[in-house]
Amino acid sequence: MSARYGMVIDLDRCIGCGSCMVACAAENNVPALQQATVRTGLTPIVVRTVSNGQEGAARRETFIPIMCMHCEHDTPCVKVCPQQAVEVDRATGIVMQMPQRCLGCRYCMTACPYHARYFNWWDPAWPAGMEKSLNPGIAVRMRGVVEKCNLCHARLHTAKEKAAAAAKREIDPTDYVPACVEACPTSAIHFGNLADANDPVAKESRSPEAFRLLARLGTEPKVYYKSKEAWVRDLAETNSAPRPEVKHG
Amino acid sequence: MSRNTLVFAFGVSFALCVGWIVFPRALYVQKRQPLTFLHKTHAEKSGIADCGECHTLRADGSFAGLPAMEKCTGCHSEKIGDSQAEATLVNNYIKPGTETPWLVYSRQPANVWFSHAIHVKLAGLACSECHSTYGESDQVRTYELNRISGYSRDIWGHSMSRLRRAPHEGMKMSDCESCHQRHQVEVGCLGCHE
Amino acid sequence: MKVTRRDLLVWSAGAAAGLVVTPVPWKILDDVSIWSQNWPWIPQPAKGPVEVKQSACTLCPNGCGLRVRMAGGCPVGLSGVNTNPVSRGALCPLGFGAHQLNWHPRRLRNVKHRGNISSWSEASAAFAKAAREGPIVIVDGHPGRSASSVLENFAEKWGGGYRVAMGPETRSLAPYELWSGVPATSLGYDLENTQTIVSFGAPLLDGWGIPGRFPRLWAERAASMNDPQLRIVQADPSLSRTAARAWQWLQVREGSESALAAGLVRALLEQNLVPAHGAIPLATISEAANETGLSADRIRELARTIVAKPPVLAVSPDFNPAVAALNVVLGAVGARGGIVRSSDRTKKYSSVAGAISNVRAVVIDSSVPWDFAAKSDAEVFRFAAWDGGSSKGDWLLPAPGFLEESTDISTPPAYPVETYAVAANLAKPTFEVQTAARFLANLDASAGTPETILHSRCEQLFRSRSGTLYGQTITPMTEIASTQELEKHLWDGAVWVGERCSAKLACELKEWPSASPSSRAGNWTQPWLAPVLPPLASKLYIESNLRGTPGRTV
What we know:
Chain B is mainly α.
């Protein structure tokens, strides 16, 4: 049976530290370019701050990590790509971006309801010598192509290879954990197979506190969020939410 | 036959000559391997029968590819025989402790993920299905480097037309795909690409 | 026969038609597309085997367990070690990018004398001259290492003194040192056993203490629970990250932490919530209310709330005697879930807070945070792996970078039990670097070397037979057969955790401490010793809105 990898992110546990962002960039050989800004940087996972809109003592804030939602149905980026550079992988449900096929039209970036896709505005570059610290097995993307979260699927490859060496077809689930999940100090990000009804993550995704962003679009995202706070759940269907707020501190 | 037809035919045959004879020679740089390594000699003299003895799978399932120098040092710490190749091996690589800069015929681009473990252990493919009988050869093939793409000629295959080529010839994506189709194994883009 | 223009055109047409049935156009198209998919100027990661090794992070004194993926002799990926009971598998956000620091453009590669490139031999000569001429003060940022012992021995021998630049967590424990005589470096917060924490602006979830300690504890005992087992009451002027996640957030005026602590003590005593106590703050509840912006009733209610779920502990982000006095009143000093002793050591370190006068030279170890500047007119020999820009000493001496030095790691600041771990050096610098300890040992070998001291510490630890080793397995020290076995475990990434210290801690408060200026809460960058952050920190500070740019250079 094919897997449907997905996540449940417990927003009540997220402390907005940003470990997931750095761990993701290090894992996937995402460069840190001096000229990059909030608009032009590459952040396959980005933690945004949202608030209940109140001021003073009534103010509440929460952090919400946004990455590719791996939409299952009518995947917007797949539909618009003129190059067939995006596909929903049948075996895993991972929405796969093929940088080598991408011609950089950025139609998918416009189509993505979650702004989870990023464009390589510049050649990837590292200070002299730093390329030795790049993660082996992850090809660096070139200037002019779109990239996004692929649930660290190189780790899935590694897990498959390890299983194959032991002549097994099924991977050990503990061998395939995305970098952000591994990095989270409060274990707010839970990763698992949504197609397996017994998977704890599949169970969690059915909890009354679980929700998805812009579920009304009908794209069936495979990244779920969870919160006890009603105001946080209410943000899910707001067009402008999650609105990034510039926060200093 | 009119003069025009003749001139046209001359133009066609000129292009054919250039395209089929001159171009293939111009496109590839002929390179010699740094060492005259003979698979046959090793199979016969040291009794290495299995490719996996030198081309090992590591504990994590990844493929070690060409063996590291320490594997050679196991037997060749001192010269065996007095061939030129033996002298090169010992003097240039074993004594200074440097790895041999082999030219790898089947090197794929960085965005390709190919697992030997899956193809050999799970699918049960023999090495020769992709690598032919090179493991038994008694000569070192010339490495032909594509001037444009920077990869070996083995990726495209020796035949320029790719029409009548041997089953193992060619390591392009379409070759992977056709084999996968034959065996009805569907992997999608994600199966082989990072 | 004459070749006409028409012939040339017909010939070209023939050649063009012929070319279509040759490999030329198709092969070129194919090869160009392969070439353009993998531009040769784009760096490609190394191929080859990936090895996993264990070490410990040395960029701040917390020493989190590191799982290092190595390829081609270089660290290529970092993650936490789940079996480490101190760091509990977590790293701070900066730690995940630390393996790129060694190639930071600001890496100090040459000895520099007042901004000009110099050499190690000149630096040694200058130091030898200084040592002959007068006393030398040595400043350490991470006491308790074997290298620290070398620095301490040297300073003792060459007169001048050994000073320590304490981190904010240790500074917050300094009042208890004043009142009890027990050194602040051997005190810790027993967070694991407390149920209510009143934080006076301490960034508990945002870079306070060990990254994997409080966040994990909070996640297990408080996060998304209606009735948390661990209640955090956070007093903060604005909605900080910790305040956003706290059980209760008290919006208080900036700088009113001492007043709030005093008001709480008054409210506790007034309502008989704690036994009567000698020292009483001069300020009344209404004065505290005025200063903090809370109502007097709110402060009274708060006093009732915090004692409702004991043990209760008050935490300040930095030195704050009023908050410490509140802990004394609450009975949290020397009690379970409060302030406890991690060891029965009695050796106190002198702090660098004041001016350093009448000395010939000051040596600053690379473990001292870059923003420390010696208040002295002596010649400054500063060891650093990265050059933070503005001149911070007469001599800048290149120290080993990240994972380039083998060192030991003792109890992290404010941790309630003693720990010991070893950080193996996994990377090699391509230019000459020296640690301060090695540099001093070159001048006077009698101060010892870090290696011999590390070894003798392991011997001592082995002989003590107390505590437990947490490696691949959990091994009580009684099952360790030899020093060699202990050392092997430690070098393989195991961490030794001692038993709880039974030594008493008692503070007597003769009079209520005067208010001290409050300090702003820091974040993950505060205990960061390097003057630069890993390049990937730009994801947090520049390429997203997650955090405002820190004071330090990215």
